[in-house]
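Subject: design request, 473 residues
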């Protein structure tokens, strides 16, 4: 596609997004909905469409929406900008800065190579070493693209090359297995922590604004622990059976890891600082319900320690483009969602939809909604866009059907991450791993669908027993 064609398509997508706002704005307001609430909904819904069509980058789309709320008099400038003062918004920004520290100091790569050296003598052990690396890094790196694509992918590619496994006839030797295993484990690690995927804090904030329930860092981790660990342990074994690598013994991998660690030398002061700051933050996040220290305050504490002790510099903070981009789109969405709740639209929607599901048993209703939510991701190229568009409506319908609010919110929260398994375009690392050329499109989609069925069995079939045991409902 030429540059002019690309520009033309962006213009068409922009026009379509604007038309959505105009059409909804001009529609008759439903009974019981104020003019401001309806106009804000028009702008908010068009913003979500813009995130899906992407006529401009995500941050720019949300900035336009936020500006329109003030320009049209729908919101005051203070209300339009209230989302940028939200603590959860800043939590995700600081989490991106933790990711930069892991990358800059090399700590992320060192952790992966240490695990490969320890247990990477067999192919299955190699996959688990990569999986554990992802699990360790997940709470501090809220971007799958940065964590799985940026830190782990180059290691996966190097390991495949070491065994003469390249795209094409030799892909099946070991490369396709390692690519698929690392990718599908990433879906699990994204689901396990509040700070392991960029949209998770948004989901927590939307839950608070929509149904008045707070999902803490520790609460999310505890709820995900049972089904998450089971999924984590099963995934490399499952992919091993589905991809069936030709090479089963990998002594050279440990040698490669040893060589790379020798090149890196002993852990430097900056790595120790990042490790200490991360361990402190993780400990305080886990004990937040006892210490009473807010999760965002903990994140800032870790960042300040890294700055004061020189692990990262202020230039690193200023250069963290993904983090500041997240501040714009995340803050803008949270601000609009907050005002939709204050203006009564969410309550109206809940009452209206509740009439359609009245009399349904809540568990079958929730199960059906979770299925639709999961597989609707075939139409999305972004986990954030998916959660932004569907999380609140699906949660509202589930609660209206009588589902326990906290349980319903976490169900959709987890599937907001697990659905990335389905396609080669579903999330940040998807095009990176698929684009490496080791797995055909048919195989990628086929294995992804089978993996999704396993997630449904674990998270919807077995998960409720665990959640009932820990008192979620």
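Subject: RE: design request

Done. Sequence follows.
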């Amino acid at each position: 596609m030429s540059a002019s064609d690309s520009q033309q398509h962006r213009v068409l997508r922009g026009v379509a997004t604007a038309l959505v706002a105009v059409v909804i704005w001009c529609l008759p307001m439903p009974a019981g909905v104020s003019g401001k609430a309806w106009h804000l909904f028009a702008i908010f819904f068009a913003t979500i469409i813009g995130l899906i069509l992407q006529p401009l980058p995500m941050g720019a789309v949300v900035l336009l929406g936020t500006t329109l709320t003030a320009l049209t008099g729908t919101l005051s400038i203070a209300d339009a900008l209230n989302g940028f003062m939200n603590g959860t918004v800043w939590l995700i920004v600081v989490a991106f800065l933790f990711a930069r520290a892991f990358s800059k100091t090399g700590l992320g790569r060192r952790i992966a190579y240490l695990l490969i050296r320890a247990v990477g003598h067999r192919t299955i052990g190699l996959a688990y070493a990569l999986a554990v690396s992802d699990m360790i890094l997940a709470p501090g790196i809220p971007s799958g693209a940065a964590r799985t694509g940026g830190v782990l992918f180059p290691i996966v590619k190097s390991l495949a090359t070491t065994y003469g496994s390249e795209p094409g006839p030799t892909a099946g030797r070991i490369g396709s297995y390692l690519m698929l295993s690392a990718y599908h484990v990433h879906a699990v690690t994204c689901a396990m922590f509040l700070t392991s995927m960029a949209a998770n804090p948004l989901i927590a904030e939307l839950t608070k604004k929509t149904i008045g329930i707070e999902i803490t860092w520790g609460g999310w981790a505890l709820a995900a622990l049972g089904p998450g660990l089971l999924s984590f342990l099963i995934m490399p074994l499952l992919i091993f059976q589905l991809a069936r690598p030709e090479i089963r013994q990998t002594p050279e991998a440990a040698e490669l890891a040893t060589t790379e660690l020798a090149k890196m030398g002993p852990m430097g002061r900056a790595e120790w600082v990042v490790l200490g700051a991360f361990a402190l933050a993780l400990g305080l996040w886990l004990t937040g319900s006892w210490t009473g220290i807010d999760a965002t305050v903990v994140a800032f504490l870790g960042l300040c320690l890294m700055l004061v002790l020189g692990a990262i510099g202020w230039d690193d903070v200023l250069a963290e483009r993904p983090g500041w981009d997240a501040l714009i789109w995340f803050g803008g969405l949270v601000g609009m969602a907050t005002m939709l709740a204050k203006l009564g639209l969410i309550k109206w929607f809940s009452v209206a939809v509740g009439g359609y599901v009245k009399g349904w048993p809540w568990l079958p209703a929730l199960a059906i909604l979770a299925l639709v939510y999961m597989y609707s991701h075939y139409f999305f190229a972004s986990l954030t866009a998916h959660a932004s568009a569907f999380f609140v409506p699906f949660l509202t319908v589930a609660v209206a059907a009588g589902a326990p609010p906290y349980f319903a919110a976490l169900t959709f929260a987890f599937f907001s991450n697990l659905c990335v398994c389905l396609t080669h375009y579903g999330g940040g690392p998807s095009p990176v791993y698929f684009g490496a050329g080791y797995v055909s499109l048919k195989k990628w989609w086929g294995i992804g669908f089978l993996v999704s069925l396993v997630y449904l069995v674990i998270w919807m079939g077995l998960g409720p027993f665990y959640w009932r045991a820990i008192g979620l409902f």
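The chain has 23 helices and no strands.
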